[in-house]
């Protein structure tokens, strides 16, 4: 069975380039992904870092994966969770799944079933089929840790939540 972070990497690889990015960002993302898969983590990190400065949720997720796994950087699950949060806040499903998993396990953040449930449920609404399927599986697994009232409250929070890009308009 693949780890959630491996799934996030696979989802990031299959995700389309981010909106309005243009050829520069697409080429940069492709180069960073190629470097990552070739094991040139230094080049990958530089590429992802630069893209993250321009708002790429995919790059932020990949930086999170790098810190979670200690690939080219010192392993730091708190920093990984921070990168996942940035991308999840943009509405990026694979990052929402990774952040849900971080909260469910207490990996780099405090263990929190409510936050894990929130991010898993948010992933089910974003339009990314793989993230939606993963989100549904996690919601089902997490619901036993929350009361029915808590689940309804979180569902309302997710319904009222908007990704950062939509909030900034």
Automatic annotation (TrEMBL):
InterPro entries: Sel1-like (IPR006597), TPR-like_helical_dom_sf (IPR011990)
Organism superkingdom: Bacteria
Keywords, sorted A to Z: Signal
SUPFAM superfamilies: HCP-like (SSF81901)
UniProt KW Membrane keyword: no
Signal peptide stretch: 1-21
Protein name: Sel1 repeat family protein
Organism: Sphingosinicella soli
Classification lineage: Bacteria, Pseudomonadati, Pseudomonadota, Alphaproteobacteria, Sphingomonadales
